[in-house]
Structures are given as structure tokens and as C-alpha cells.
């Protein structure tokens, strides 16, 4: 609920009503300077006047506002042309004093001209579950023009009998960079009246003066721009931009005044439907905790939330019988209902108010109900406090000891009570559990079938359950995709299911599919980050500014916990696999409690990480040490490490051929396709996998299906390359043409087309087409120069090819790709080998990944007869790129030449990767 500071009151000239009154401003108002509408420049602020004056007296508050706005544009005219003024008719009046347009020296009185405010009675915030009882007066300003000044002066009066004659009010204080020609906040109250007041802005110390029997505070606005604070500073460090006042002497006075609103005596009539519900709970169990859990579930599940602020409802809850019969209520109504039920069941309980917005700032505010926006129940069972929120969802017996994130609460007691700190602790059961299983038994560099199970509890479970009941198939898949993505990154989902258990308030979302391998070659061995908890953790408070050096850091806004379990099925029964990094984490990391369990058993590597937050602060002096501790943990991420002799990918594929090793991967793709049979994505991804294991026939079949469903340039280009491996050059060229029809700008597509035309006998036409592209210039010019040089060399025009490269390298001497191209062509031609060697060596130094340049230099060494050097470069190339078939082929050629039987394995692997590699190298006179 919202404890709004509308506990306002007015002198006896006005009475509460549901229609605006039209009266002059009261005599106590000090008029703002009249704006000079004729004098204006573009640098003047659009806000001409913002004058707020509050007068407190006799249990009432009168809020006077005078606002004048310059209409600088047609957009501003649209925005300001309809004036809306809300008020609470049960508490007081809306009084309109002035509505006028200033145009040069002319003043147009809208009220005198007959314009009036119309009252809207519909609930403006009903879609936000608020039935506030507010009325809105609306005026559409007639005749408003760009350049006018629109001025409105009005008052809202208020009195809340629930406060037993006490009052509270607050005035928002405008601060830079906001601007106004004239802005003021003014507060007045009778001399001799006990009224506390406070302003929070740094350096603001207004003085109280007496005038005509009243104390007055007058603040010129805007205030200076508030000092910047780090985003993780606790709430109490953020200064409130307000001037507030209260007649409450202290917090116990607030507690005493509010307590009678939650008396439960006689609120559940014998024999009533509600009494019957209480009897059901009593019959189910005699255990007070179980009874409490059942009562809370009844209030949460059977009564929907709806804020009801009408008929004095800002602070006064509706009766439990009404709440139960209507099956709706706000936090006040739900709290009173729950209290009444618990008291009937013999359970000690009391209402407590809290602020969901202000957190630990409440303790710095003046005492008053306006400091709070929520009310819950504190039950006492077995010497422990249970914090029960009737507006929550999914709370069950296991959750009763959980703590809300309120920092401070005020018990409402007849004898009064002071503010109490509320220490948070992690929830009794993790709201989120994630179980991940990865099947990498087929190989580390292959796509990975996965199963991910998300288990969510409590309020989150209810939210997901509601969403699932309303979502269609595509939306459910999108939700599952997002959840899987948060753990594994981009993935394909083939199966997904949702289950909900109302008894435990648990939603379980299961997703199965396939994801790209996370293994990467690092320091000569394949490695996979196994650590999700620390990898995504961060703790980097900024306290570099001197003004921030003593500010602690908030670690979390609320108590929370997560549990992540991962299982990885390793190949080769897990033999030779190792774990690096932290098997054990510090018990406490930057305010988070960490627990880790790790095991390597046979083919399975398992990890369990639990993280629990309790909203702790890190003292400023402890921030450097906490930051260093987190940084150290992140530098030692738990990592799975493959054996040093783990076979290259081509060996894994070669061994898998003719077996069922790929069955789990193919099954995962099959489920993806079955889930979305009319989508191209499943077919194209399976085609990419089959292409990656050099099964071109099956890959082409899947590409056919994908293109039939949703043709794209990329799919055509991919099928063209596959058809080339199937020796279908005519079909490959047709695909390239189809792809270029969709994406004529594709550099790779153009280069592939001209190569195919060249080898189909259209040599001159292909070379001319590339020359035309080069002549056109643009960012891809150098790529076309390189491709044309390749074809010139293949056509026996080596000198021309090298000359073309010489020209562009002279202009781009640091381009590793061009240096590699010239080195390669010289090597294949056996020409200028000494300068070729220099080109490759320089390119290796410049390139981020020089695998292809090592291969080119190996060709040069081969031509020079330096076989050992050639082998060394080929080994280096394959270490960087294990599936670089050209390097395998050349290593096989050299090994056979040197009498090494391993050459046959290399050649077999290269031929598996490229069905045409022999004819490619035959062009350069190289044969095994």
C-alpha cells in the first residue's frame, strides 16, 4: 500500500467534496512575483513559477501550488494543453484559485471566460491494482498558443481522522540542474504548536521566522545540484529532496496512533464463512508453525491484491469479513485478515509497518506514518519472529523464517514501540536452483547435447506459473531460451517442459537441446571454464573520490540464494582429465556466503556452487581487501583440462565414423527439428555439424531442406561449398548465383563465383570480373586483388600476380593478409623464395592468428628443400588450427618423402576434410 503524505488539512473555509471549488487564494499565501510574459529569451527556463506553500494547523494541512509554464513549442503545447489535478475527496477539497493565459501584456482569465474543470471518476490506476478513490479534475485549455505562459494556482486540503489529530506533510525541493525563473517552498504553522520539521539537503539550513502568529520557513529554489554518490552506496547516504514536517513527537507515538487500526477483537464472527476457514486450518494441524503457514497461504492465494484507498483507506484497513467476501484487499486489508486468523488460532502476532522504498533511510526521517509504504505481520513462535507478508506469493512452511528486505520496521502496539532494525539472512530454501548436464562423450570439439533444469520457488514460482498459463508455444520457448542462454549462452532448444507443484510452490522448467562446444585451446591443451559462479561475479566499488572514501558498499538489496549444479560427461571415460583453479572458495566473498563441492569420478565431472546473500554492507576500510579477494578468485576460475595427448578433432571424427558415437548429437538435433519442423534453423545447424565432420552428402540434404523453408544468401553460399566437395561444380555455381541475387555485396560470394567460373573454363571472364571489382574500389578492394592474384598464378601468369600484390603491399605494408598471399604465391610457383620467406615471417609477426601464414612459409621451406623447417611450421599451424586440412596434407607429403609412416595418417585426414585436396595441390605439381 502507499502511505502518501496526503494527511493534509485546511482552515474552516472549505469542506470535503467531490467537485472542485473556485475561490481566491487564502490570505496567508504570499503571492509569487508576477511573471513578465513579454520579456523572454530562448535561454530562459520554461518553468516560470513553481511556488509551493503548506500551512499546518488544527489537524489539517492546506497545500497551495502556483505554477506557470512557458509554452515553447507545439509539443509543449500538446503536453501542457490539458491540465489534470488529482485530490482525495474523502479527505478534503480541491480549490482552484487561478487559471489564466499570459500573452504579451494580455491576461486571459479562463475561469471568467467560462472554462471549468471536469471530474473524472474512473480509476486511473486500476491496471496497477490500485483502487485509490482519487478524483481527477481535468481542463482542456482553449486558445493556448506557442509563446503563451499558462498559469494555474490551486489548493488541496486534507485531514485524516485515522491520525487522531496528528498531521504530516512534505514539500519536494527542486534542485539543479532543474531551472525556474521563480521557485519556492514555504511552510507555516501556528506559534505554540508542537511541530517537528526537517530538510535533508546538504548545506540547507532554513531559519524559522514568526509572522502574524505563525512560524514560517521559506526556501528559495532550486537547490544546488546534489552531490554524486556511488551506485552501491546504502540508501541512507542519499539525501531526500524534501522539506517535511510532523506533529508526531517520536516513533512510539506513531505506533500508538496506528495500533487501534489493527485490533482484531470480534472481527471474525462465529459461524461466518471466514470462521469456517479458520476451523479448517485448526483441524489440519495443532502445530503453530504449520497453522501459520496455512493461514498465510490462505491470505496470499485466496485474496488478490488491490490497493483500496477510498473512504479513509489510506491508513484504515477494510474489515476481514469484507476482504474475504470480496476476495481482494491491499496490504492493510491482508495484514488485518491474517492477524485476525492467527489470533483466532492462538498465535501471537502483531502488525509492523515498513518501507519497501527507503530501506535504512527510514531511521533518519521524522516520525510519521508517511515514512512507510507497507505493513506486514510479525508472528512470534518458539521465541522466533516470523515476518509474514500477505501480499507475497508462494510462501510455504519451509519459507517461514525468511526475512524481508526492509532494514527497519515499526511494530504497531497500544503502548507504543520504537523503530527496530531487521537483520536479513538467506532464505530457508533457494529461490533458484539450476541443474546443468552436458554430454561431451562424443568429443570435446563437437556440439554438446545438454539438459538444463531450472527450479524456482515461492514468488518466482508463482510468477513463472502464471506466465506459462498465459503464454503460447513460441513465448514458452523464448522464455526457456532466455533462461538457458543465461547459463550456456546461445543454444538450440529441442524439448522444453513446465511443471508446477502448488503444495511446495515450485515451478520446474526443463530444456534440452544442443550448444556449441565451450572447450578452447589454451597453452597447448583444451580447457573449459567449469566455474559459472565466479565467472559472472563482480565486485568493483568505486571509492576513488575523496568524498566517497568513507561510504560502505551495499552487496545486495535483499536476501537471496542460488544453487548451481553442473555435470559434464567426458569422453574416454574421463581418463587423463584434470581440474585447475579453486576447488574450495572462501566462505565469504564480498558479502556473499559461498559453498562449493567438486568431484571427478570416472567419466563425470561434477560441480555444486551455492551462493547466499544477506544484504550485508562492506565497510569502506574493508573494500580493497574484499575487491582483491574477488579478483583472486576470478583469476583462479575452476577449469576442466583435457589430457595433453587428447586427439585432434579429425582423429575424433575419423574414429567415430562407422560407430554410434555421434548418436547423442544427432538425436539432439532431431529433437530441435521435431520441435520446429517448419523452421530452417534446425536443419541448417545440423547441416553445419555434418559439414564440420565432413559428411557432405547428409549436410547437403539438410541444406536442401533449410533452403526450401527459408532461403538466404548465407545458406546458398554454404551449400555451394558443400556441393564443391561433392564435385558438383555446376550446382555450386548455381547456388553462388542464387546467393548473390539475394546479397550482391557479398565479397566471399563474388570471390567464390569467379573461382568456380575460372575452373569451369571461363578464365578470362572471371579475371575480368575481379578486375572490375578492383577498379570500383571500396573497402573490399584488397580482398579482390588477392583473389585475382591467386587465379593469375593458377593460370601461369605468376609475374603478373606478384606485380599486382607488390602494388597494394607498397601502399599497405603492414597488411598480414597481403603479405601471406604474396608469400604463398611465390612458394607455390617456386619463385623469389628468399623474399617470400621475408613476407611470411613478417606476416607471422603481425597476424593475431598466423596459422595460415605458417602453412604458407612451410610451402616456401618445402620449395627450398628445408623439410625440417617446413615440418616445424606445419606443426605450429596445426597447433593453432587443428583442422587446417592443407597443413595436414603438406605434412603428409613431407613425412612420406622423409619415410615417416605417419604421413599416410595426415594424408588420410586431409582427404577426409577435402575431397579435392589432391587436385588442388596437383596444380602446383605437388603429389604424395
User: Span between N and C termini?
Assistant: 83 Å
Q: So how many helices?
A: 26
The fold-level CATH name of the domain at 21-247 is: Immunoglobulin-like
Shape, principal axes of CA atoms = elongated
Structural class: alpha+beta
Secondary structure tally: strands: 38
Give the DSSP E fraction (strand runs of 2 or more residues). Answer: 15-25%
Helical amount: 25-40%
Largest sheet: 9 strands, mixed
Q: List unreliable stretches of 5+ residues.
A: 1-15, 122-130
Describe this structure in words.
With 928 residues, the protein is an alpha+beta fold. Among the domains are: 21-247, Immunoglobulin-like (Sandwich); 254-421, Roll (C8orf32 fold); 813-928, Tetratricopeptide repeat domain (Serine Threonine Protein Phosphatase 5, Tetratricopeptide repeat, Alpha Horseshoe). Helices cover 35% and strands 24% of the residues. The chain has 26 helices and 38 strands. Strands 1, 2, 3, 5, 6, 10, 12, 14 and 15 form a nine-stranded mixed sheet that branches. Helix 11 packs antiparallel against helix 12 (680-692) and helix 20 (816-829) runs parallel beside helix 22 (851-864). The chain starts with 20 loop residues before the first strand and ends in a 6-residue tail after the last helix. Mean pLDDT is 92; it is low at 1-15 and 122-130.
Amino acid at each position: 500500500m502507499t502511505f502518501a503524505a496526503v494527511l493534509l488539512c485546511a482552515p474552516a473555509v472549505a469542506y470535503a467534496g467531490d467537485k472542485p471549488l473556485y475561490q481566491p487564494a487564502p490570505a496567508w499565501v504570499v503571492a509569487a512575483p508576477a511573471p513578465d510574459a513579454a520579456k523572454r529569451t530562448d535561454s530562459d527556463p520554461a518553468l516560470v513559477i513553481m511556488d509551493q506553500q503548506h500551512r499546518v494547523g488544527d489537524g489539517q494541512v492546506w497545500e497551495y501550488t502556483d505554477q506557470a509554464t512557458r509554452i515553447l513549442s507545439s509539443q509543449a503545447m500538446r503536453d501542457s494543453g490539458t491540465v489534470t489535478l488529482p485530490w482525495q475527496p474523502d479527505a478534503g477539497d480541491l480549490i482552484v484559485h487561478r487559471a489564466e493565459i499570459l500573452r504579451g501584456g494580455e491576461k486571459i482569465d479562463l475561469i471568467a471566460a467560462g472554462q471549468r474543470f471536469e471530474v473524472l471518476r474512473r480509476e486511473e490506476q486500476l491496471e496497477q491494482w490500485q483502487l485509490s478513490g482519487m478524483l481527477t479534475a481535468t481542463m482542456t485549455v482553449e486558445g493556448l498558443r506557442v509563446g503563451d505562459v499558462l498559469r494555474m494556482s490551486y489548493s488541496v486540503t486534507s485531514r485524516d481522522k485515522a491520525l487522531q489529530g496528528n498531521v504530516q506533510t512534505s514539500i519536494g525541493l527542486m534542485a539543479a540542474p532543474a531551472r525556474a525563473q521563480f521557485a519556492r517552498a514555504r511552510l507555516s504553522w501556528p506559534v505554540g504548536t508542537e511541530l517537528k520539521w526537517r530538510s535533508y539537503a546538504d548545506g540547507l539550513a532554513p531559519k524559522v521566522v514568526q509572522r502574524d502568529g505563525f512560524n514560517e520557513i521559506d526556501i528559495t529554489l532550486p537547490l544546488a545540484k546534489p552531490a554524486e554518490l556511488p551506485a552501491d552506496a546504502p540508501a541512507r547516504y542519499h539525501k531526500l529532496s524534501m522539506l517535511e514536517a510532523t506533529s508526531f513527537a517520536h516513533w512510539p507515538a506513531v505506533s500508538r496512533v496506528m495500533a487501534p487500526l489493527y485490533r482484531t477483537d470480534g472481527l471474525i464472527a462465529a459461524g461466518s464463512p471466514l470462521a469456517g476457514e479458520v476451523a479448517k486450518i485448526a483441524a489440519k494441524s495443532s502445530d503453530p508453525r504449520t497453522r501459520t503457514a496455512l493461514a498465510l497461504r490462505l491470505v496470499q492465494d485466496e485474496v488478490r491484491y488491490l490497493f483500496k484507498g477510498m473512504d479513509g483507506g489510506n491508513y484504515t484497513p477494510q474489515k476481514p469479513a469484507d476482504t474475504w467476501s470480496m476476495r481482494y484487499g491491499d496490504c492493510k486489508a491482508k495484514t488485518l485478515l491474517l492477524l485476525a486468523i492467527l489470533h483466532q488460532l492462538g498465535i501471537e502476532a502483531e502488525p509492523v509497518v515498513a518501507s519497501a522504498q527507503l530501506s535504512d533511510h527510514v531511521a533518519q526521517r521524522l516520525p510519521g506514518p508517511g515514512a512507510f509504504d507497507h505493513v506486514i505481520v510479525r508472528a512470534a513462535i518458539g521465541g522466533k519472529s516470523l515476518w509474514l507478508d500477505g501480499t507475497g506469493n508462494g510462501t510455504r512452511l519451509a519459507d517461514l523464517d525468511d526475512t524481508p528486505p526492509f532494514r527497519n520496521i515499526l511494530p504497531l502496539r497500544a503502548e507504543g514501540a520504537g523503530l527496530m532494525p531487521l537483520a536479513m539472512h538467506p532464505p530457508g530454501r533457494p529461490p533458484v536452483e539450476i541443474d546443468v548436464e552436458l554430454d561431451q562423450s562424443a568429443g570435446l570439439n563437437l556440439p554438446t547435447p545438454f539438459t538444463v533444469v531450472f527450479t524456482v520457488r515461492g514468488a518466482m514460482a508463482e510468477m513463472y506459473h502464471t506466465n506459462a498459463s498465459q503464454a503460447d508455444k513460441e513465448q514458452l520457448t523464448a522464455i526457456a531460451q532466455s533462461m538457458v542462454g543465461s547459463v550456456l549462452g546461445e543454444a538450440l532448444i529441442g524439448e522444453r517442459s513446465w511443471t508446477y507443484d502448488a503444495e511446495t510452490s515450485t515451478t520446474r522448467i526443463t530444456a534440452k537441446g544442443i550448444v556449441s562446444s565451450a572447450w578452447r585451446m589454451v597453452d597447448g591443451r583444451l580447457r573449459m571454464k567449469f566455474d559459472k559462479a565466479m565467472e559472472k561475479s563482480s565486485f568493483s566499488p568505486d571509492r576513488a573520490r575523496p568524498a566517497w572514501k568513507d561510504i560502505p558498499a551495499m552487496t545486495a538489496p535483499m536476501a537471496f540464494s542460488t544453487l548451481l549444479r553442473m555435470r559434464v560427461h567426458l569422453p574416454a571415460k574421463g581418463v587423463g582429465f584434470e581440474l585447475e583453479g579453486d576447488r574450495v572458495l572462501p566462505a565469504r566473498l564480498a558479502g556473499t556466503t559461498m559453498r562449493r563441492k567438486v568431484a571427478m569420478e570416472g567419466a563425470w565431472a561434477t560441480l555444486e556452487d551455492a551462493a547466499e546473500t544477506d544484504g550485508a554492507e562492506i565497510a569502506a576500510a574493508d573494500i580493497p581487501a574484499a575487491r582483491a579477494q574477488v579478483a583472486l578468485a576470478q583469476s583462479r576460475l575452476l577449469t576442466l583440462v583435457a589430457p595433453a595427448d587428447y586427439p585432434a578433432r579429425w582423429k575424433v571424427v575419423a574414429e567415430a565414423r562407422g560407430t554410434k558415437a555421434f548418436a547423442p548429437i544427432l538425436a539432439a538435433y532431431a529433437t530441435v527439428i521435431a520441435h520446429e519442423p517448419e523452421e530452417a534453423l534446425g536443419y541448417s545447424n545440423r547441416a553445419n555439424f555434418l559439414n564440420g565432420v565432413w559428411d557432405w552428402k547428409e549436410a547437403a540434404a539438410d541444406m536442401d531442406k533449410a533452403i526450401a523453408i527459408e532461403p538466404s544468401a548465407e545458406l546458398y553460399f554454404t551449400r555451394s561449398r558443400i556441393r564443391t566437395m561433392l564435385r558438383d561444380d555446376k550446382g555450386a555455381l548455381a547456388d553462388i548465383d542464387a546467393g548473390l541475387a539475394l546479397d550482391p555485396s557479398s565479397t566471399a560470394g563474388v570471390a567464390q563465383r569467379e573461382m568456380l567460373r575460372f575452373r569451369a573454363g571461363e578464365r578470362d571472364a572471371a579475371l575480368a570480373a575481379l578486375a572490375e571489382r578492383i577498379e570500383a574500389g571500396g573497402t573490399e578492394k584488397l580482398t579482390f586483388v588477392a583473389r585475382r592474384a591467386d587465379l593469375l598464378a593458377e593460370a601461369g601468369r605468376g609475374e603478373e600476380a606478384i606485380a599486382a600484390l607488390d602494388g597494394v603491399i607498397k601502399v599497405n605494408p603492414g597488411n598480414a593478409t597481403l603479405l601471406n598471399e604474396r608469400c604463398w604465391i611465390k612458394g607455390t610457383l617456386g619463385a623469389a623464395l628468399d623474399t617470400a620467406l621475408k613476407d611470411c615471417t613478417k606476416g607471422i609477426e603481425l597476424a593475431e592468428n598466423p596459422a595460415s601464414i605458417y602453412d604458407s612459409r612451410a610451402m616456401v621451406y618445402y620449395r627450398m628443400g628445408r623439410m625440417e623447417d617446413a615440418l616445424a611450421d606445419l606443426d605450429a599451424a596445426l597447433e593453432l588450427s587443428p583442422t587446417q586440412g592443407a597443413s595436414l596434407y603438406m605434412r603428409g607429403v613431407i613425412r612420406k618423402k622423409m619415410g615417416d609412416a605417419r604421413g599416410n595418417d595426415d594424408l588420410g585426414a586431409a582427404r577426409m576434410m577435402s575431397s579435392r585436396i589432391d587436385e588442388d595441390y596437383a596444380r602446383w605439381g605437388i603429389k604424395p
